[in-house]
Specification:
CATH topology of the largest domain: Rossmann fold
Low-confidence stretches: 397-406, 470-476
Mean pLDDT: 90
Number of domains: 2
Structural class: alpha/beta
Radius of gyration: 24 Å
GO cellular component, one term: chloroplast outer membrane
Strand content: 15-25%
EC number: 2.4.1.241
Strand order of the largest sheet: 4-3-2-1-5-6-7-8
Helix content: 25-40%
Pfam families: Glyco_trans_1_4 (PF13692)
Subcellular location: Plastid, Chloroplast outer membrane
Number of helices: 18
Catalytic activity: a 1,2-diacyl-3-O-(beta-D-galactosyl)-sn-glycerol + UDP-alpha-D-galactose = a 1,2-diacyl-3-O-[alpha-D-galactosyl-(1->6)-beta-D-galactosyl]-sn-glycerol + UDP + H(+)
CATH class of the largest domain: Alpha Beta
């Protein structure tokens, strides 16, 4: 294999679904390919038309993967200053209404030819592998890096029988990441501890937000009024995204926050309930439909309030800091990265929240330094990713210890071989369970997703499942 690395970035969502696992891997692929030293492929889910209608907003649907790819490329090209040179491939997927998630169908390792299988970056490795039935990632790729985006444990604890489900999910996440990944990057300490993991925020912000920050800094230095609006919050409008915590704080301290005006922006399943709860407050809390955070509408707000504790690293918090705003957020592991910025104010109690909010509305934000702006950028995030993933090290082949008799192996190598044997057995067990329809259904998989159906095969130009099984039988 050439010493020029090939990185395949697999993720669990795609635009136009405006979720973190659609946006951040897209930026990662663009910036990993920026200097031309690496070949990069972004591998994203392809949904049938029926599933697209359930997932994508504003009735946006695509008749073919080529249409979808054009949409994704147009979106990223409008937000960066260079022409991205990565390629895009699609894997077959289905949308689960119960999990509100896109799940892979079949063996998605097949998207990358063996001859270029070097590094696999699994964005949400646990999610991609809960029901994985196919080639072992570590056997196909030299290096498999998982990037943990979502605090699934925190979410499921809010559901019925949440404690029991969270216990099972914690074990499952540990199991699949151990057997399929060489290294795990946890974006913050808010995620569960996983084998061979490090904590490092490897996300950046859309350059457009940094441009707004530079404009605001210029206005402040010229003595102009840079911010004409007060406080706001933006996020998917579901209770778990911090809306309950925020409205509880505003309700409890209404008498101390007299005159406070807060605008909430978001769309989601709980929009009507959030609106009704806001109407009960004596404070001026207005609820608006969701919008792109880059919309000029948000540029003049001075204070961003984010009480959410279910995020791993909140993208909108980073964007608000990049735009030069003061951010008020909970003192929580998910916000650890942001504490280095003077405009980030964290609270441990309701009284602190009140005082920080009043102070923020009365003060001007501290100007972002060049280094602080750089730390928020995707250039810096890409450097952090390469270091955390240990991809700056030279390519080296794995030692082939199986060629030596067990008796002549040094003790540490015998231990290593034993661990490998145990891992292989664990992979075999996972493959056996994930290959049974009854087991898959019992643990929440979409029915009949061991192989792509006829529609997905036609859309993606794949061989029908029967032919693939026959080919595999002949090969064995």
């Amino acid at each position: 294999m050439s010493t020029r690395r090939h990185l395949a970035v697999f993720t669990t969502a795609s635009l136009p679904w405006m979720t973190g696992t659609a946006i951040n891997p897209l930026f990662r692929a663009a910036y990993l390919a920026k200097d031309g030293d690496r070949e990069v492929t972004l591998v994203i889910p392809w949904l049938s038309l029926r599933d697209q209608e359930l997932v994508y907003p504003n009735k946006i649907v695509f008749g073919s993967p080529l249409e979808h790819e054009a949409y994704v490329r147009r979106w990223i090209e409008e937000r960066i200053s260079f022409r991205p040179s990565f390629s895009i491939k699609f894997y077959p997927a289905k949308f689960s209404k119960e999990l509100r998630s896109i799940l892979p169908v079949g063996d998605i390792t097949e998207c990358i030819p063996d001859e270029v299988a070097d590094v696999a970056v699994l964005e949400e490795p646990e999610h991609l592998n809960w029901y994985h039935h196919g080639r072992k990632w570590k056997n196909k790729f030299r290096r498999v890096i998982g990037v943990v985006h979502t605090n699934y444990i925190a979410y499921v604890k809010r559901e019925k029988n949440g404690q029991a489900i969270a216990c099972f999910m914690k074990y499952m996440n540990t199991w699949v990441t151990r057997i399929y990944c060489h290294k795990i990057i946890r974006l913050s300490g808010a995620t569960q501890d996983l084998p061979r993991s490090v904590v490092c925020n490897v996300h950046g912000v859309n350059p457009k937000f940094l441009e707004v920050g530079k404009l605001k800094l210029k206005q402040l230095r010229n003595g102009e009024i840079a911010f004409t609006k007060g406080a706001y919050y933006i996020g998917k409008m579901v209770w778990s995204k911090g809306y309950r915590e925020l409205l509880d704080l505003l309700s409890k301290y209404q008498s101390k926050l007299v005159g406070l005006e807060v605008d909430l922006y978001g769309s989601g399943e709980d929009s009507d309930e959030v609106r009704k709860s806001a109407e009960l407050l004596s404070l001026a809390v207005k609820v608006h439909p969701g919008r792109d955070h880059a919309d000029p509408l948000f540029h003049d707000y001075k204070v961003f309030i984010n009480p959410s504790t279910t995020d791993v690293v909140c993208t909108t918090t980073a964007e608000a800091l990049a735009m030069g705003k003061i951010v008020i957020c909970a003192n929580h592991p998910s916000n650890e990265f942001f504490k280095q910025f003077p405009n980030c104010r964290t609270y441990d109690s309701g009284e602190e929240f009140v005082q920080l909010t009043l102070d923020a509305l009365a003060e001007q934000p501290a100007p972002l330094t060049d280094m602080q702006s750089y730390d928020l950028s995707w250039e810096a995030a890409t450097e952090r990713f390469m270091e955390a993933a240990e991809l700056n090290l030279p390519i080296s082949a794995e030692p082939r210890i199986h060629q030596t008799s067990k008796a002549s192996l040094p003790a540490f190598m015998r231990t290593r071989k034993l661990k490998q044997s145990l891992e292989d057995a664990s992979v075999y067990l996972h493959q056996a369970l994930s290959g049974l329809e009854v087991t898959r259904r019992a643990f929440g998989a979409v029915p009949k997703t061991l192989q792509p159906d006829e529609q997905l095969c036609n859309d993606l130009g794949l061989a029908p499942a029967k032919k693939k099984r026959l080919k595999l039988k002949l090969m064995t």
